[in-house]
Amino acid sequence: MPLPIIAWGLAIAVSVYGAKKAYDLYSEAQEESKARDRQQLEEEELRMKEQKAREDQEKLSKAKDEIADFELLWKKRFESLLLVDSNIWMNREYDNFFKELEWIMQNFSSCIKMSSVQFDEIINLKNLDYEHPKSKLARCALSRIEYFQNINLIEIIPMDINAKKGAYADPDIIEILIDSLSRNPAMTLISDDRELRIRANQIMKDKQANDFKSITGQEIFDLIKKYHLNIDFVS
After folding, report:
1. Is 62 helix (H, G, I), strand (E, B) or coil?
2. Could you read off the pLDDT of 125-184 as tens digits, one per residue?
3. For residues 133 and 174, is the Cβ–Cβ distance under 8 A?
4. Neighbour count for residue 114 (Cβ, 10 Å)
5. CA-CA distance, 56 to 169, in Å (whole number)?
6. Residue 213, φ and ψ in degrees, nearest 5
7. What pTM value is reported for the model?
């Protein structure tokens, strides 16, 4: 075979070998790069999982602390004297409030106390002209009261045979608080009536009732709702 042909063949073989070697090196580099990318991705996913686990643990710990704080402040109150003013029962916007109130009262074995004077006040408002705004609100209140009565979450004391004309609940609510000083470890008034809250706060302070608290419907709703969410989260 002529020498030029042999040299040409060798050159082609060397060229092919070099190209294959270069391709192999390129492929190897690509695989190493992909492996590094996969490793970085796995490490990032692991960091994210660990971060989420830490955040979940922190949320769980915070929820448990908030549950303990709420129960420390409120469990005794719901198990003791609980008064709910008429303006709460008559507030049409409080459907969610009463759902949360029912939930926590059943959990804490609570019972709302309502005087017959307060009940009669609502009855007198119900007896106004049927289309009167306060008559409508009173009927809303009576529907809620009856529901709570049927599930044993309210007690009307003492219930009279007939409604008293001109019944006015505010003084009676304060009298109940005063009469209950020696019988209840804690007393709570839920009312949206600022004047009643101020009057009750001062009178109970004068009576040295350290465990009395007045609170608005929205305030107690927010507290119960947060507690409810925490309980669901921890469960």
Report:
1. helix
2. 999 999 999 999 999 999 999 999 999 999 999 888 887 888 999 999 999 999 999 899
3. no
4. 27
5. 48
6. -145, 135
7. 0.80
- Cis-peptide into 158, omega within 30 deg: yes
Q: What's the rounded Cα separation, in Å, for the pair 16 and 13?
A: 5
First-to-last CA distance in the chain? 89
DSSP per-residue letters across 124-137: HHHTS-TTSHHHHH
Helix (H) or strand (E) holding 229: helix 217-234
Dist CA 177 CA 154 (whole Å): 17
Tell which residue, 120, 163, 160, 161, has the closest CA to residue 138. Answer: 120
pLDDT, tens digit (0-9, with 9 covering 90-100), for 82-93: 999 999 999 999
Place of tokens 């999982």: 49
For the record, the structure tokens of 185 come out as: 């470890």
DSSP tag of 85: -
Distance separating alpha carbons of residues 181 and 210, to the nearest angstrom: 10
- Report the alpha-carbon distance of residue 135 to residue 123 in Å, rounded: 9
* Higher pLDDT among residues 42 and 79, named by residue: 79
